[in-house]
Amino acid sequence: MVFLRKKKVKGYEYLYLVKSTWDKKRKTSRQETIKYLGEKSAVSRDDIPEEYREDAKINSFLLQNTSKDRKKYEQLIGQLRDKLFTSLTDGNLKETMNVYTSFVSNNSLDKFYEKVMTPVMTKIGHLWSNGELSIATEHVASNIAHSLVKVISDDFRKSKYDRGVVILTTPVGEDHDLGCNVLDSFLTSKGFTTFNLSPATPSESLIEFIKTARPDALFVSITLEDNIRSGQRLVKKIHNEYKKLPIFIGGQAFSQKTNFRFEGKLITDANMLEQMPQIIKKG
Q: Would you give the distance in Å from CA 79 to the centre of its chain?
């Protein structure tokens, strides 16, 4: 059984998606937090993992507890997306940083990536592919986005936490590394030591590096569907050498189709960023 739990902190209410299971040995129920959803007024049905969205109790709770300020919140998100789109396509790093800092002052980093940055970068990609945005503008936007993520990562690398070691990479042929950089900055903010080997480290070099780094997990990001086969070959080679190493695969390439087989776990939900530390821990 799953349900939403409210927790009040300094006058604000926050929501958590919780799963309750019966422990036969201890003869009592055990509760596990599946996902932190954020401040109550900002939570929508889209924040609920897909497999739980049709749960009647959850939908009923959301209807009864939806804040009257939801419309204002959605308008604010829309305004921030518009500002970020403009600052990225204008090549304005300072204004891009302003959008980021104004959002995370009252929200978490994963929510910034999920609700603001990812939709904007997806829009830029669609406009470019449809010929509505020049390749020069797309490159400018991508470079500014990378610069923002680097600033965020460098800031969080000062953390003294030690939650584990993670390697991030892309398969040969995949030159898009923004996905790795975003995940890099988020995991760093959570206290992980990361080695970002994107884009496209040769498999032999990667396998040799794993022996030295001894990671707790490895993530492979694939943006273009044309590079999925290359990703499958890479993951298979790594798995053959390190069968106990948890390997996770995700990226924009799987936004339309998800029926691909890997020697690892395929993550297709773009809104799972906040859950990554738990996923790594479970292996």
A: 22
